[in-house]
Structure formats: structure tokens, C-alpha cells
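Batch manifest, entry 17 of 40.
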Amino acid sequence: MIEESDRLKEIKRNMMREKKVVQALKKENSLTWEEDGMVYMEGRVYIPNNRKIKEEILKKNHNLTDMGHSGQHRMLELIKKTYWWLGLKKDIKKYIQECFKYQQNKVQHQRKAGELHPLEIPEGPWQEISIDIIGPLPKSNGMDAIVVIVNRFTKMIRLKTTTMNISLEGIAKIYRDKI
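Output type: C-alpha cells
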């Protein structure tokens, strides 16, 4: 692992390549200054676009021995105290998503699913049915809906055309006369 002094030397070496970015940052923000070859933004060290340096900082602030594998929000707060770079949040999110240990141990924030209670199986055909209406559909011969009647025992389906304004009595009549 790179020591802090070595990391600062690496950052200083990369600053020369990032002069345009440094100058742009100085213009946009009056809280930006350069000191001993390092650029500071609001008191935080600006990290140049160097993947090696960023990866080392991310690794150091994620694999903490006293805190375990920190999550996205904690890691962002830790890094923001000292460093800043363009795309910091995006880089942290990507690093966390690629961390196998974190994905194994992350806390689920959803309630546990309740116990399933399946319906009892009917003893014979047409003892239990389910009825549904599909619609509104485009009109055809004055009809704009379909009544779906399913025999729960055999899974046999009966489809009958109807209108969307059919009453409960109308559905019962279809079942009695046509099924």
C-alpha cells in the first residue's frame, strides 16, 4: 500500500499534466489555491485524473480495519474530508458495486416477504372458478370486453365477448347459460 507521503508526491507529479483543469478550477472558485505544488479546493486536496491514485484512495477509505467495509455514503464522507476530484460520487458508487465482500454483507432495507398461503386445490372440475374482465378493447360487433372464466381444477379457460358496462347479473347469466 502506498504511504501518505508517496501519495502526495504522486499527486504533485501529476499536477503538471492537469494545469488546464487547475486553472479552470481556480477561475470558477475563489476558495481554490495552490501551495507547494498541491492544489486545494475548499481546504481539500484536488486529485488529478489519475486512476492509480484514485483507486488507492478509494481502497484505503473502504477497507478500514476499525470500521469494516464502509458503504457508499460513509465512504463519500470520509474521502470528502480530505480529497476532491471530478466524478468522486460516481467513482465511489462504482467501487462499492464492484466490491465482492460488500455485496455479500450489505444490509437489506426491505421488509422480509410474508409467508405464502396458496389456495387449496379443488376436488373436481368447475367447483371453483376465477372470473376476470379484459377491456376496454376496440369495439367489434358492439362488444368491447372479454369475460375470462377459468376452472381452477383443470385450468380450462372460457372466453366470452361482452361490453364493459356488464353487471354482476350479466356475468352470472353468461356463466349459467354458456359454460
